[in-house]
Amino acid sequence: MATTAGDTDKYYEDLRTEVDTLRKDLQSVTQTLRELATSESRAARERVRQSAAEAQAKGKEAVESVGPAIAERPFTSVATAFGVGLMIGALLNRRQ
Questions:
Q1: What is the model's pTM?
Q2: pLDDT at 96
Q3: Helix (H) or strand (E) holding 73
Q4: Does residue 77 contact residue 70 with C-beta atoms inside 8 Å?
Q5: How many structural domains does the chain have?
Q6: What is the distance between the alpha carbons of residues 58 and 49, in angstroms, rounded to a whole number?
Q7: Backbone angles phi, psi at 76, to 5 degrees
Q8: Which residues contact 69 (CB under 8 A, 6 or more apart)?
Q9: Is 47 left (phi over 0), alpha (psi -120 to 50) or beta?
């Protein structure tokens, strides 16, 4: 079976068409992935913001609930804070 110049030209034209189709498909996939990444990034940022807001609210509640106890027993509060500080310092010194 002999190939002619016309067959070769048709083969290259078909190949060029396939490559162009593949290029367009890859561009479409790339765009879709980019959109997904952007969407996931936004969702992750929103989750972080919500977590930070919740942590801030819980911290504020904790500070407000501890305030009266400190006012009622200031020396006990200072001694407790000092003891906790010593324990944390001892733990940190062990790791070094």
A1: 0.47
A2: 64
A3: none
A4: yes
A5: 1
A6: 14
A7: -65, -40
A8: 77
A9: alpha
